[in-house]
């Protein structure tokens, strides 16, 4: 029917109508920040996946440094996905087939980055090669802590969008 609003994907309807505790648990799988999850949960129901993603972006923009630290704690270092976690493995697949030399270099860079900033190197790894991730950590290690915090915020936002889309995809 012309002019009719598009139907919401089944997964979005399920997310919108699930119990708060179940929805919050699902959001925690997307992002480990409890503040982010609470902000996204509070705005249900969502008319579209894009509206959900926009709410995620807005919630990410409001996170404090402590909230960002909580979100980052849910991410393993690049090159060392969480054992048994298909999301972690899928997102870091660019490192899976990397040469041992590159994996060793990433480990060294991860440690140097963590020593400088006090947290894991975080990047939206989906679709990136091991070399691209290595180059990114090399570049970002020179950032100031303030610059890096905002870069991490942006990268977390990208990760959250990908994960939210997957969460509400039909058939998931």
Q: What is the percentage of strand-forming residues?
A: under 5%
Total of DSSP H or I helical runs spanning 4+ residues: 10
The residue ranges in which pLDDT falls below 50 over 5 or more consecutive positions are 1-5
What is the arithmetic mean of pLDDT? 86
Name the shape in a single word: globular
Cα-atom Rg, whole angstroms? 17 Å
| Count of individual beta strands | 0
What do you see in this structure?
With 172 residues, the chain is an all-alpha fold. Helix content is 65%, strand content 0%. It is built from ten helices and no strands. It has helices spanning 10-17, 20-30, 34-42, 49-61, 65-72, 86-91, 93-96, 100-117, 130-140, 145-167. The protein is globular. Mean pLDDT is 86; it is low at 1-5.
